[in-house]
Write a structure and sequence with these properties.
By secondary structure, this protein is of the alpha/beta class. Helices cover 41% and strands 15% of the residues. It folds into 2 domains: 6-223, YjeF N-terminal domain (Rossmann fold, 3-Layer(aba) Sandwich), CATH 3.40.50; 233-519, UDP-N-acetylmuramoyl-L-alanine:D-glutamate ligase (3-Layer(aba) Sandwich). It is built from 19 helices and 17 strands. The protein starts with 5 loop residues before the first helix and ends with a helix.
């Protein structure tokens, strides 16, 4: 599924028109899809009260079509004309059905609006959609301020606020929100999701986001570079598990990780590789880590490495680590290694020295911090790699402030992938996966429950396992991010959005992958 800018969406609509799909057909399809989904969200339509806020353009037209269908199906519909101007044809079709209409220009003090809101089941926001990027002013501003205040008031109205395409007041390109923007419970975006719905603060105002088909011709969006990960696409990426399969064909992951202070990172990265389907996993870690990790994990092969007096891996261990890499299908390096000078020398020797390694590698955590201190490292990193920085690590790698990283995450990830000629996962809410050829995939998942130590180590292990099972770096990263996010959602649904332990993700990983393969849904 493609993610579009406003201009790209308008281009798709123009292309659809040139292909013989009229604007009216798109609007009718969109309005019908919205009406059907609203009926599903409130579990039935007949007798339900629906208030449709209508603006002057195509978004208002979509809302009027939805109002017409909802009225035909037995809902008690009120159309509130929020602005001057209207889609006359769609408005008259509502009039013919005797749908109640309130003119916003006649409701200057919003007495009518404030009386409808407490008794309404659904408010459908079809005022501007992608058609406005200016601040809300005048009566519109006071109208949406009232809507927001009544919605958020303790003991207030219980209506569901459903935005058509984009919540009014949310910039569909930048994700900026107007002060009067009311957070939606659901956003039913039309044709293709808009990039601003994945950029904060806007992403926090979209609520549950769904994309509805409006009948665009197949393949019309093929030249758009940004994708949204979805269950169907990821299910097709996941490696097959033949009935006669054995550990030898499911890949061997080498996890190079750990220091005296960060034993847990090694456990999480190692066990997540197993949980994601790797046939064998070897943990190469300092001696002190080995002694503590063995009682916690019976499954991995252990390769104790020489260590320094303070519990970091010794630079001399690079020889053993490089030899182990030759017997592995994929490598994960960095979790819990620490930021000491010996670690820097070790990582540099393992990844950048001659002869250059050839196995695909996931570079995470402290290994990224090592690279950030080395000028020109990308010229020497020739093995296929997936780099997994969080915003702070990306800040150090690019030598720019974190706010600059977060300002345009897609562009930052894309430019880094092209500069380094490697796949990049910029972690965070709606993680970004970028390839050197310009492809970008956005994760649909944003989950504060994942904001705890160790969840990134789990992600690295999953990427490593998928690389070991034969996926190309970009596909391995996209699939792993999606599976990891879906696992986090399952834990959140069980315990809430706080208190998640990274180890809670481990049993959910194979369950998510199973469901993706069997049902096509996580």
């Amino acid at each position: 599924m493609k993610v579009v800018t406003v201009e790209q969406m308008r281009g798709l609509e123009r292309a659809a028109s040139e292909a013989g799909v009229s604007e009216d057909t798109l609007m009718e399809t969109a309005g019908l899809a919205v009406a059907r989904r609203v009926g599903q969200l409130i579990e039935g339509i007949r007798g339900r009260r629906v208030l449709v806020l209508v603006g002057p353009g195509n978004n208002g037209g979509d809302g009027l079509v939805a109002a017409r269908y909802l009225s035909d199906w037995g809902a008690l519909v009120t159309v509130y004309m929020a602005t001057a101007g209207r889609r006359r044809d769609k408005f008259e079709e509502c009039r013919q059905r005797r749908v109640r209409v309130v003119e916003g220009k006649d409701d200057v003090e919003q007495w009518a609006l404030s009386s409808y809101l407490p008794i309404t089941d659904v408010v459908l926001d079809a005022v501007f959609g992608i058609g406005n990027s200016r601040p809300l002013e005048g009566q519109l501003r006071s109208m949406f301020t009232l809507l927001r205040d009544i919605k958020q008031r303790p003991g207030g109205a219980n209506f569901k606020l459903v935005a058509v395409d984009v919540p009014t007041g949310l910039n569909a390109d930048t994700g900026e929100v107007d002060e009067a923007c009311a957070p939606a419970d659901w956003t039913l975006t039309l044709g293709a999701p808009k990039i601003g719905l994945f950029r904060f603060p806007g992403a926090a105002f979209a609520g549950n986001l769904e994309t509805l088909s409006i009948g665009l011709p197949p393949g019309i969006d093929r030249d758009i570079a940004i994708d949204l990960a979805d269950d169907k696409t990821v299910a097709a990426m996941l490696p097959k598990r033949p009935l006669d399969g054995h550990k030898g064909i499911f890949g061997h992951v080498l996890v190079v990780a750990g220091s005296r202070r960060y034993v847990g990172a090694t456990v999480l990265a190692t066990l997540s590789a197993y949980r994601a389907g790797a046939g064998l996993v070897t943990l190469a870690s300092p001696e002190c880590v080995y002694r503590l990790a063995v009682p916690q994990m019976a499954e991995p092969i252990h390769l104790p490495l020489p260590e320094t007096a303070d519990g970091f891996v010794s630079p001399s261990a690079a020889v053993e680590a490089r030899a182990a890499m030759e017997g592995a299908s994929a490598v994960v390096i960095g979790p819990g290694m620490g930021n000491s000078e010996p670690v820097q020398r070790f990582v540099q020797d393992v990844l950048l020295s001659e002869p250059r390694p050839t196995k695909p590698v996931v570079i995470d955590a402290d290994a990224l911090n090592v690279l950030a201190r080395l000028y020109g490292w990308a010229e020497h990193l020739t093995t296929p790699a997936v780099l997994t920085p969080h915003p702070g690590e990306m800040s150090r790698l690019l030598r720019i402030p974190v706010p600059e990283v977060q300002e345009d995450r897609e562009a930052i990830a894309r430019d880094a992938a092209q500069k380094w000629r490697q796949v990049v996962v910029l972690k965070g809410a709606h993680s970004i996966v970028a390839a050197p050829d310009g492809r970008i995939t956005i994760s649909p998942h944003a989950n504060p429950a994942l904001g705890s130590g160790g969840t990134g180590d789990v992600l690295s292990g999953v990427i490593g396992a998928l690389l070991a099972q034969g996926l190309a770096p970009y596909e391995a990263a996209v699939a792993a991010v999606h599976v990891h996010g879906a696992a986090g959602n399952r834990v959140r649904d069980m315990i809430g959005d706080g208190g998640l332990l990274a180890s809670d993700l481990l049993p959910q990983l194979p369950r998510v992958m199973r469901d993706l393969k069997v049902k096509g849904t996580a």
